[in-house]
């Protein structure tokens, strides 16, 4: 007797469900075994913790908006709309807009963003660009080439990380948290280095600079002088 | 100030649920991400992306700490890893979702004939399917999610979810054919 298409389909669904249950059991067992064999807990970076806090905060506001009764929401929305007229420009527009050569720096209330209005280079990518100096103990851990950016991760014995990125400026824009970082501009040998020094201990600081048609960025728990020293050592 | 009031109005049970998920699975998520990218800073990015997806889909986690939740989270992390690898390495071998193809229905062969070859064979065939496709099979057949819900959980379009499901069934059908099952 041949099964009808619907019955056949339902039986396949049940069979797939049972097989997949078995797969789930095996996958979780594998993960547990991996946990047990490893035993080392990863210490998440302060940047990670900060970002998760931010995600939570955003979600709290969003979920609140969804739960506010319609009438309350309407009056809040009206008030917000009136205030919004006054503040919309502040929220959506940068406080400061600055262009140095082809580099455009926009300063928003909680972040700075950098973009580049020049041409993309003819050569797609520069290979083998590396900092000539790294603080003691930091070794190159990984290199990942993306479409327009390369990311080099350096790590020391204490699992502390320094990230060096470079890429085609015209195709890359960079945003940096300016709420907990103090921005300083440093001029050296005709180059402008934008340094974002972390205000809280444990947070990472960054330095950004443009050279030719390329953008460079170093992020690590180093002080300003160390960041500039690494930046100046980069062989282009 | 407005955001302060709104924060006070948010559901405490959701916050508690998220806190429990966060503390119970943060490390497991990192390890799962490391398995895919083997880079701590990228793995942290993947865990962040995954937490964002979890927050957006909190209602799909009825119990914050249980094996179903753990497994759903592993699937979310794995798929966030694929997204990350695509972003970082455009030339990598992670399969891409094409939305231009049409996802037709795939009829699987008569189950009675398929079972004659032994369930073990079918288990093996499903195990051989690329995770990117077997994950959608899991979400569909094990957890009973619709294509729209799968797309929300994985952060992909509904069309991409439909396409993955179609391909998963197509791959299974091909494997059955390769193994001598009679396919119309």
Keywords:
heterodimer; A: 236 residues; alpha+beta; Phosphorylase Kinase, domain 1; 3 domains; seven-stranded antiparallel beta sheet; four-stranded antiparallel beta sheet; 13 strands; 38% helix; 32% strand; B: 184 residues; mainly alpha; Rna Polymerase Sigma Factor, Chain: A; Arc Repressor Mutant, subunit A; 71% helix; 0% strand; elongated; disordered N terminus
How would you portray this structure in words?
The complex is a heterodimer of chains A (236) and B (184). Chain A has three domains: 1-41; 46-92, no CATH class; 97-235, Phosphorylase Kinase, domain 1, CATH 3.30.200. Chain A is elongated and about 80 Å long. By secondary structure, chain A is an alpha+beta fold. Chain A has helices spanning 5-38, 46-67, 70-92, 224-233, and strands spanning 96-100, 103-107, 111-116, 130-131, 139-145, 149-155, 161-168, 174-177, 181-188, 191-198, 205-211, 214-220, 234-235. Chain A has four helices and 13 strands. A seven-stranded antiparallel sheet of chain A has the order 5-6-7-12-11-10-9, covered by helices on one side. In chain A, strand 9 (181-188) and strand 10 (191-198) form a beta hairpin. With 184 residues, chain B is mostly helical. Chain B has two domains: 12-88, Rna Polymerase Sigma Factor, Chain: A (Orthogonal Bundle), CATH 1.10.1740; 111-178, Arc Repressor Mutant, subunit A (Orthogonal Bundle). Chain B has helices at 2-9, 12-37, 40-56, 67-88, 111-116, 119-128, 131-142, 147-154, 158-178. The longest helix of chain B is centred in the N-terminal third of the chain and has 26 residues, at 12-37. The interface between A and B is large, with 56 and 55 residues.
């Amino acid at each position: 007797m041949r099964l009808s298409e619907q019955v056949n389909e339902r039986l396949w669904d049940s069979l797939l469900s049972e097989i997949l249950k078995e797969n789930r059991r095996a996958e979780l067992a594998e993960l547990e075994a991996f946990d047990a064999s490893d035993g080392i807990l990863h210490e998440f970076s302060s940047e990670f913790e900060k970002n998760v806090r931010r995600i939570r905060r955003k979600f709290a506001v969003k979920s609140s908006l969804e739960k506010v009764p319609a009438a309350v929401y309407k009056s809040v929305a009206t008030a917000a709309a009136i205030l919004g007229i006054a503040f919309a420009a502040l929220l959506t527009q940068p406080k400061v807009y600055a262009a140095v050569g082809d580099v455009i720096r926009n300063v928003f209330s909680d972040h700075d963003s950098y973009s580049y209005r020049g041409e993309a280079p003819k050569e797609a990518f520069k290979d083998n660009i590396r900092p000539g100096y790294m603080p003691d103990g930091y070794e190159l851990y990984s290199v990942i080439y993306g479409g327009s950016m390369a990311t080099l991760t350096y790590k020391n014995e204490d699992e502390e990380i320094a990230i060096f990125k470079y890429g085609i400026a015209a195709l890359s824009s960079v945003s940096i948290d300016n709420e907990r970082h103090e921005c300083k501009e440093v001029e050296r040998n005709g180059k402008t280095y934008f340094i974002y020094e972390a205000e809280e201990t444990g947070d990472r600081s960054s330095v950004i600079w443009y050279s030719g048609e390329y953008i460079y960025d170093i992020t690590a728990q180093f002080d300003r002088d160390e960041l500039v020293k690494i930046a100046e050592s980069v062989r282009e | 100030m407005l955001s302060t009031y709104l924060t006070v109005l948010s559901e405490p049970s959701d916050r508690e649920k998220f806190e429990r998920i966060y503390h119970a699975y943060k490390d497991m998520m990192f390890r799962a991400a490391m398995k895919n990218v083997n880079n701590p800073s990228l793995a942290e990015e993947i865990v962040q992306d995954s937490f964002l997806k979890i927050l957006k889909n909190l209602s799909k986690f009825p119990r914050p700490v249980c094996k179903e939740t753990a497994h759903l989270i592993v699937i979310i992390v794995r798929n966030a890893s694929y997204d990350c690898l695509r972003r970082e390495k455009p030339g990598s071998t992670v399969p891409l979702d094409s939305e231009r193809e049409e996802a037709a229905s795939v009829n699987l062969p008569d189950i009675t004939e398929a079972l004659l070859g032994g369930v073990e064979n079918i288990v093996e065939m499903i195990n051989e399917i690329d995770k990117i496709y077997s994950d959608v099979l899991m979400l569909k057949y094990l957890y009973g999610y619709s294509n729209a819900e799968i797309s929300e959980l994985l952060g992909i379009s509904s069309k991409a979810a439909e396409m993955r499901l179609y391909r998963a069934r197509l791959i299974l059908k091909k494997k059955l054919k390769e193994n001598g099952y009679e396919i119309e």
